[in-house]
Amino acid sequence: MAEQGNPIFANCIFAFWESRDLPEAAIDQLQKTLENHAGEISPNDDDGKINLEDVTHIISTTSDFPQYSEARRNMISIVKPAWITQSLLKNKQAQPRPYTPDPNLIFSDITISCADIPTGDKDAIIGAVLAMGGAESNSLTKLTTHICALTVDHPKCQQALEKSLKCKIVLPHWYVQVYVSPYKLTMNRFDDCLKLGKRIDERPYCLPDPEIFKMKPEDTLAIPDSDRLLGASSPRPETLPISTDDLRHLDVFRNKKVMISKDLEINGRLLKVLEDLIVNGDGSITNSVHNADMFVCQWREGRDYTFASRAGIDVGNLSWLYHLITYNEWTSPLRRLLHYPLPREGIPGFEKFRITLSNYGGEARTYLENLVHVSGAEFTKSMKQDNTHLITARKSSEKCQAAEEWNIDMVNHLWIEESYAKCEVQKLSNPRYNHFPPRTNLGEIIGQTQFDPAVLESRYFPRDPTPSPLDPKPLRRPVMHEKDDEDEKEEQRPAKAKKNIATRPRSKSTTALVSTPAPNRRTSAGKENDTPSSTRSAKDKARANIHGLSADIALYEKEKKRKGPIWGGERALNNIDKQKSLKRRSSSPANLASEAEEFSEEDTRTPKRQRTSKPTTTLPPIGIRLLVTSYQGWIGNVNKEDADKKKLRDLGVHVVQDPSNCTHLAAPAIVRTKKFLAALATGPTIVRSEFIDACIKDGAVPDATGFVLKDTSNEKKFGLKLKDAVARAKANKRSLLRHVPIYCTEDIPNKPETYKDIVLANGGIFNLFRGKPFAKKVNPEEDEGGNEPVYLLSGTSKKEKAMWPMFREEARKGNMVPRIVPAEFILDTAMTQQLKWTDDYLLDDE
Known about the structure:
single chain, alpha/beta, Rossmann fold, 4-stranded parallel sheet, 10% strand, BRCT_dom, BRCT-containing protein, BRCT_dom_sf, CellCycle_DNARepair_Reg
């Protein structure tokens, strides 16, 4: 080791993340070691958070802590405690990559040295290890953990055996099982070099007596333990895993506000126990998701779930809450598949599957059974010819033999785990799903698959492209793993003068980088949704765009070479990507004004943020979000519409298209258009269309109260007072039809989409009815569904009438009251903002 006092860690500021594998006592000892070698320690705050503005290194045995992704984005090194030891052994700071706790880098704690391996195979193996976080040494050293060899005759192997070194001598087959190689190894008995992407036990491949050569694949093999699944094998545990008489003190909820959703449907006594545990742990209970730090619910649906997910609040299910209580340690609900709320309808496509298991036991078997159920498939204990899939941990059992004879698809558990994590059925043709290494029970790698936050967002809570003042602010905390997600906003870390750290002044061009986020967009196979133009003008515009980015590209090349935590190439690259994304947007003047608006609002939320690298006119903050319907001045005149929208934006009035995001609604009269009725649910200020004319004419925004819509003739016609309807809408908070199931025929006049938007705007449940049995219980939110109505919006065509008997039958099976009504029912309900029933709406005589 280096001499005491040798300044190996000079200019480094360290923080620690305490966990079961890194307790407080070990942290104290490591802190003393670092301080003895010129390292500086940054203590965590009272909430346990790390001050990311100060630190250069985080010492942690896990990536499962709240600030992991944010630390990665800030170019902070996150390493295991072994990095400190190796740095002292080398008398200089070791490379951090081999010591990362990132579970995706499966070789992160491996240093290999190849022996008698052919050159091509050796390059392939070394490349695989380096790519997955490991290191390579040409000679045998104290740091070597594995020797890759074909026999033990090589001098390296003899030296390791003679000196009783702790390194393991393994066949190259082991690396092949874990990672794809572009070569076929000399001793490899397999036709294809397949990838599991998971690190399996190397013992069956260890020389001098490898188990894979002396035993048959079908010989008996013990089922491994599944400790990592403890507390995560069921999405809804039947009992609290600790005694309810022991209300011990918990640190995991300190200074946290927890909201427990009603959709968990837990009894009052258990709820009281959970609340007491949280409060006794210095946490608090809240009934508003807007105030919550943790949100616990059962299903991936509802306004509270959507808001919490968009706001970056930790969203988990009851199993996750129990896990926090049991281990008194924070864990991301995305880390374990059954710790996250469930999809009520399962995964599309799984409803056709009948699945059974083989060669899994204990918690692993329970976990897979539950995973089959929540995916929407049918689980069977025994296997028959009508089974569609067999999930097995190894290719040896009676079920495996029967599956081959009956042509039943045989896969390992990675198929269902990744299908559930990616929210869609994965292709069975992927070789990693039907790969079974010899003498390995794949139960040893079960439970390692995690959720991708970007996939969940795109499926269950996509961000609205037009921000609203009521929308959640940017993510308050990072998700578990770093992703290329342009929705995540980055804040520049202020350059503070710290002890032993030199502060570099930033250039003007650095502070002028665009740092606003691009709106969410779905991508496929790495391609963006933009449709390139083949015209000469489009090519000229593209060249101009590239030329405009030349300064920023040069800046990126300069910035990425910098060292230290203040700035880095990764963040500069992210900012340039965001600029390019913004410049690739639609060239329509109206669209450009609308798109630019999304960024201007974010600028008002995040101080000291520059919009562009060149001086431009600053748009005023948004005062009014205006939805326009039936405005005669824009009908058939696109040029005038674009020009007027730009003028309105210059006045602080942003014309939106989403009814849920408007603060004001402009209409010539009370009209029953889709826009008007959907927007009415938000309780906006409704003004006459002349309000637009006044803004354009005067170049200023007049008092909206002077333009409030008054339409007594239509009020009389529709039997309502508009003022009262708006007041009720504000009180309803878009929940007038909450938990109300409404079906609609495909042939209804004006198309089902019209009524779908109105129903959803008011919080209802909308489905098409095609004369087939309901796919689910009609009113799943109710404990007792008796006498609850279910509606069918229908016309009176012969085809639609033919479906009415089936609808009535299905409704009554669900203990519901069927009501077949015309579209007039939903229009009246949305217009008056009252759910009033009268039998006059019924289309049938029942």
